[in-house]
Amino acid sequence: MIDNKIVRVCLLSMILMLLNISFTKDNKVFIINDIFNVMNSKCIINNYAPPGDFNLLTPANNSNQPPGNIHFTWETSSNADYYRIIVDDNSDFSSPVLDKSYITVTFYDYSFNTQGRYYWKVIAYNNEGQRQCRYPFTFTITGNSIENVSLGNIKILFLEY
Predict the structure, then answer these.
(1) Which helix (H) or strand (E) element contains residue 126?
(2) Beta strands 116-126 and 107-112, pairing class
(3) CATH classification of 56-160 is 3.40.50.2000, yes or no?
(4) Which of 16, 81, 98, 136 is within CB 3.0–4.6 Å of 121 for a Cys-Cys bond?
(5) Start-end ranges of CATH 2.60.40.10 in the chain?
(6) Is 0.85 topped by the overall pTM?
């Protein structure tokens, strides 16, 4: 979004520069061209675009995964400020098992121990809008965790395949 105050300051400084106006303060002469050059960095108005297209990477589409930690990765979306990842066992994403926003990197780890098929997507955001990944992916957790054993600080997860 464009800050109207910056636009007004920029327009005023450009008008004064065109009129070649100068002023004196504390025995120093200031020419509007000098002031405009100093203000120029604040007068740059970004033509910011919504986030660009991007794809999901891992886990691969239609892949089988063992129970435990899943490492989600995706491509960078140009102009994205942050991402949101949604994982659901429904293809319409109506009841997410994971819904995490404000991710500023292109990966996220989450542990799945329940067997089944999951759908996942990522949405990129910035002040100009949002962009969903080109295609949501699916993965299936295969096998069951049948026993969790703790030995002090060590946890052992036995799996059934």
Answers:
(1) strand 116-126
(2) unpaired
(3) no
(4) 136
(5) 56-160
(6) no
